[in-house]
Amino acid sequence: MPKLTQADLIDLNQTFEARSPQELLAWSKEVFGDKLAAISAMQQAGCVVCHMISTAKLNIPVLFVDTGVMFQETLDTRDRIIKEYGVDIITLQPKLTMAEQTAKHGILYLTVEGQKECCHMRKVEPMNEVAGQYHAFIGSLRRGEGGKRSLCPVLQVDTENSTIRINPLAMMTDEQMDAYVAEHNVILNPLHQQGYPTVGCNRCTTPVMPNEPKRAGRWRHLGPWAVYCGINPADREAGAKQVIDLPQDVIDRLLGRETDFAI
Ligand code: SF4
Predict the structure, then answer these.
(1) pLDDT tier at 150 (50, 70, 90 boundaries)?
(2) When you count CB atoms within 10 A of the terminal residue's CB, does the N or C end of the chain come out lower?
(3) Domain boundaries, the chain
(4) pLDDT at 170 over 80
């Protein structure tokens, strides 16, 4: 299978720095067609992506990983987006229920090592199960989130499941995000109005104090060393030598070798 490295994407990423999220979404659909899906945890940025997909009638399915311990507000947000935006949201689930996992492995999320195992089984594995059906996933990371995400490129190779990760909101600032949400009255997870700037599983998410970092409520019980679940390549790896396998015709379209489509 032909190889693609992060270094191969440097020129394209530079070109994309000046593109709008909507332009990048349209380009993604043009290049990857039916081998493209978005990923959303029903947080603010993911809801904005769903709204943009719906508004532009791009017909891109959205994958939502239901770990079995989500807040009801998160599930309700998913259901509202399906109903009101007409977005095709595909819910993925882990093999074991949380009760079955706990009976087999104990309460994993209470330790640093256990959290990695739990997130892998409940978030990463469900994605791995379907990854072979796709060549690219649209994420919703923004550089404005800080931390490892402050440098996230628009296009990134995802070595976990040999796909391209597209972050069309990478350059969107907090102010631009708030303006988009207000202008379009985007459906949002109501927990954002209840002290939760970010929302994950109910076992591992708390509200944050006004003077705390936005992600302080994620895995608070484990301390600052466990702040990501591993589902996003920008959170777990970096470097120009990262490499994935992709069909040659997909690489050619991606790098603009066999298409006259340009943005
Ligand atoms: S966020 Fe917590 S409960 Fe959810 S999968 Fe990760 S460790 Fe498990």
Answers:
(1) confident
(2) N
(3) 3-253
(4) yes
Q: What number is the average pLDDT over the span 144-167?
A: 90
Alpha helices, DSSP H only, in the chain?
Answer: 10-16, 21-32, 44-55, 72-85, 98-105, 112-119, 125-131, 174-184, 233-236, 248-254
Whose C-alpha lies nearest to ligand 1, atom 5? 119
End-to-end CA distance of the chain: 28
Predicted confidence at residue 147, as pLDDT, reads 78
Distance 121 CA to ligand 1 centre (A): 9
d(CA 232, CA 236) in angstroms, rounded, equals 7
Buried b (16+ CB within 10 A) or exposed e, 44-55: bbbbbbbbbbbe
Cα-to-centroid distance, 41 and ligand 1 (Å): 13
Q: Ligand 1: distance of its center to the CA of 124 in Å? A: 11
Class of domain 3-253: alpha beta
The residues, any chain, with a CB within 8 Å of residue 161's CB and separated by 6 or more, are: 127, 128, 131, 132
Scanning the structure block, which residue is given the tokens 């993925």?
A: 92
> Is-contact 227 234, C-beta < 8 A?
no
3-state secondary structure of 86: coil
What pLDDT score was predicted for residue 261?
A: 53
Please say whether the beta carbons of 68 and 98 come within 8 A: yes
Is 229 known to be catalytic?
yes
The confidence score (pLDDT) of residue 223 equals 83
pLDDT bracket for residue 263 (50, 70, 90): low
Atom of ligand 1 minimally distant from the CA of 202 = 3
